Amino acid sequence: MAEDGVGQLEADALKRRERLLALKRKREETSEGAEKSEDEIKQEEEGLPKPKFRSYRPQDEVLQDKVIPDAQPGDVEEEVKEQLEAAKNRGIIEELDLTTLAPRKPDWDLKRDVAHKLAKLERRTQRAIAELIRDRLREGQSDLAEAVAMVQPQQLDED
User: Fold this and answer.
1) How many domains does the chain have?
2) Which of 35, 99, 124, 137 is the most buried (most CB within 10 A)?
3) CA gap 125, 128 in Å, rounded
4) d(CA 30, CA 37)
C-alpha cells in the first residue's frame, strides 16, 4: 500500500512538472507577441471564458428612462475664485464671539446618559417625602407646616 501511495505521488509530480513546462512555453510565446497578465494565463489554464466588459446600459425601455446621465465637469475656475473670495472675507470671523464657543466639560456625556435615571430618582424622592409627611400627620401631628419642616432637615442630612 505504501508503495502504491509513493507511485501515485510520483505520477502526480510528473503531471505537475509537465503542466509547468507547458505554462512556461506558453508564457515565452506570449512574451514574444502581446504580453498577457497572470489573470489571463490562469483563466486559460482553467479553461474559463474571458470576462466581457459591459456598458451597463439597460436594454429595457422602461429602465432606459431612469438612467442617470454621466456627470459633466463644472466650471472649476469659477468655483475656485468663489472659494478664494470667501476666504478673503474676514468679516464673518470677526463677528464671531469666541467666548460663546466654550468647550464642553469632560463629563457632559456622562451627565447626559444619567439624566433620565436622575429624573426617575427625583420622582421617587418626592414620593418618599410625601409619604413621610403623611405618616407624621397620621401619628398625630396636626400641623402640616411642622411636618414638612421636620422632613426637610432630615433629607439634607442624608444628601
Assistant:
1) 2
2) 137
3) 5
4) 10
The reply to whether the predicted model has a pTM over 0.70 is no
pLDDT digit string, tens, across residues 107-139: 888 888 899 999 999 999 999 999 988 888 888
Residues of the chain by 3-state class (helix, strand, coil), percent to 5: 70, 0, 30
Cα–Cα distance, 23 to 151 (Å, whole number): 95
Range of the domain at 19: 9-49
Is residue 64 assigned to a domain?
Answer: no
Residue 48, burial from CB neighbour count under 10 angstroms (0-12, 13-18, 19+): exposed
Q: 82 lies in a domain?
A: no
Instruction: Provide DSSP, 61-127.
Output: HHHHTTPPPPP----HHHHHHHHHHHHH--HHHHHS-GGG-PPPPTTHHHHHHHHHHHHHHHHHHHH
What Cα–Cα distance (Å) separates residue 60 from each residue in 54, 63, 81, 109, 157?
Answer: 15, 5, 44, 54, 80
Domain-embedded: residue 77: no
Confidence of residue 104 (pLDDT cuts 50, 70, 90): confident
Measured distance CA(107)–CA(110) in Å, rounded: 5
